[in-house]
């Protein structure tokens, strides 16, 4: 079953869509048109994360119990996501 949603990102790393019990394809899109968001593990920061530029998307394949986090240098930014079990 395909699900989707959005997550508000700020100065502290937040998980995107929780933990999954099966392999999952997760697509993440930066909805902001001026800001940068950084992706990574639970300790992601703006200096060590994978840069997700304005209106850019990335797709990840996650193993069970893996989770992606997001952070930014400004509060209140929005990313959207689509999740599909594989």
What is the β-strand count? 8
| Order of strands across the main sheet | 1-8-3-6
Number of helices: 0
The topology string of helices and strands comes to: EEEEEEEE
Mean pLDDT across all amino acids: 94
Strand content: over 45%
Largest sheet: 4 strands, antiparallel
Low-confidence stretches: none
What Rg, in angstroms, do the CA atoms define? 12 Å
What is the global morphology? globular
Termini gap: 10 Å
User: Helix amount, in percent?
Assistant: under 10%
| Secondary-structure content class | mainly beta
Can you walk me through this structure?
The chain is mostly beta strands and 86 residues long. 0% of the residues lie in helices and 49% in strands. It contains no helices and eight strands. It has a four-stranded antiparallel β-sheet with strand order 1-8-3-6, with no helix packed on it. A four-stranded antiparallel β-sheet has the order 2-7-4-5, with no helix packed on it. It is globular, with a radius of gyration of 12 Å.
Summarize it.
This protein is mainly β and 86 residues long.
């Amino acid at each position: 079953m395909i699900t989707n949603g959005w997550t508000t990102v700020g100065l502290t790393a937040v998980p995107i869509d929780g933990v999954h019990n099966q392999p999952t394809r997760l697509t993440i899109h930066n909805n902001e048109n001026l800001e940068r968001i950084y992706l990574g593990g639970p300790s992601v920061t703006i200096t060590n994360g994978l840069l997700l530029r304005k209106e850019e998307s990335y797709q990840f394949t996650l193993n069970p119990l893996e989770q992606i986090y997001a952070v930014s240098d400004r509060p209140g930014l929005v990313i959207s996501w689509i999740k599909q079990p594989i």
